[in-house]
Amino acid sequence: MLILPKAITVKEVGPRDGLQNEKTVISVEDKVAWINMLSETGLSYIEVTSFVNPKWIPALADCYEVATSIDRKPGVTYAALVPNQKGLEKALLADLDEISVFMSASEAHNLKNINKSIDDTFPVLEGVVKEALAEGKSVRGYLSTVFGCPYEGEVDVNQVLRVSEKLFEMGISELSLGDTIGVANPRQVQTLLEQFLRRFPQDKLALHFHDTRGLALANMYAALQMGMTVFDSSLGGLGGCPYAPGASGNVATDDVNYMVNQMGIETNIHNEKLLKAAQFIEQRLNKKLMSHSMLVHENNCSLDS
């Protein structure tokens, strides 16, 4: 009989990964209101913004103002993505709970995304991790293009493992493995996890799936079968990487919550509150969110009316 986890942790990345590629400018007030709504859903982790140069990600130019204006709910970890020392300084001033560093497993994507080679990125991130830990912050790592690269195609698993080893040696407490362009399939997910779980503790790993080809939930189920319990997602399926052509949104938090709850896996997330938060940001973006749960919810509402 298949044994699945009894509970999982869902890490909401919508306010950062979901909004970073949006052309519609969301006001600070609306971002803060949305994050506060997310805090009331039962989510235990919210990535609220990214302290990157606004020239590269204009949608998150208000990072400090947003991070310092939200209501901090006890029991919720508030995190932000940080690319370098300058970004870390602002993130520490904002007093966020967790710092996230990021890089790619493929050389070409790392050059596009960070403007540095992989080997040149290591010392930059090592400095960020060291200082963040010294300031009492936990540090999470994101590794992009784990399952495929828009510029190089397949990425050698040994290269993925090499970069992962380096990140753990720096002192990160968790590594999120990203399917940046949504090319992974369930068999590939399990094959890669078999190798990772031989080297790293299961509770130090997370999965970050994109739904470009409609396989994100299937890939998540494959990871659940391997005992994985931490997953990144974005409400309504918002998101996409500015430096990965063709990448569509993240797996939707509302779809993840529905699926695992129906399977008897606990998340402690209130589905109706999630959908209200999704409706809020949908209205502010002036576009329909494409998660299955939102489409069903809106169809049911129109039938009722």
UniProtKB/TrEMBL annotation:
Protein name, as recorded: Hydroxymethylglutaryl-CoA lyase
Database matches in InterPro entries: Aldolase_TIM (IPR013785), HMGL (IPR043594), PYR_CT (IPR000891)
Recorded family membership: Belongs to the HMG-CoA lyase family.
SUPFAM superfamilies in UniProt: Aldolase
GO BP term (any one): ketone body biosynthetic process
Keywords: Lyase, Metal-binding
GO molecular function, one term: hydroxymethylglutaryl-CoA lyase activity
Keyword hit for GTP-binding: no
Domain Pyruvate carboxyltransferase: residue ranges: 8-275
